[in-house]
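Researcher: For the annotation table, I need structure tokens for MYND finger. Please keep the output clean. Sequence:
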Amino acid sequence: MFRLLFWIALIAIGIWLWRRKNKPATSGSQQADNTQVMVRCAQCNLHVPQREALQRSGNWYCSQQHLELGPRKLDQ
């Protein structure tokens, strides 16, 4: 009985090692492609992906309304 369990364990470890060796490696460049640059809206300070944001005069905005309003002025 012990021999049977030994061979089953040995075969299972062999299969596990073989799968681990043949598994395609994920490179860091593939993971970097999934990241998005986030920018802050100059009006409401909401962070949005840069590809969805609107830009004017070096400021980023989350919507057309905020773009028209311009950057928020600080109350002093």
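Researcher: And a one-line annotation?
Model: Strands lie at 38-40, 47-49, 54-56, 59-61.
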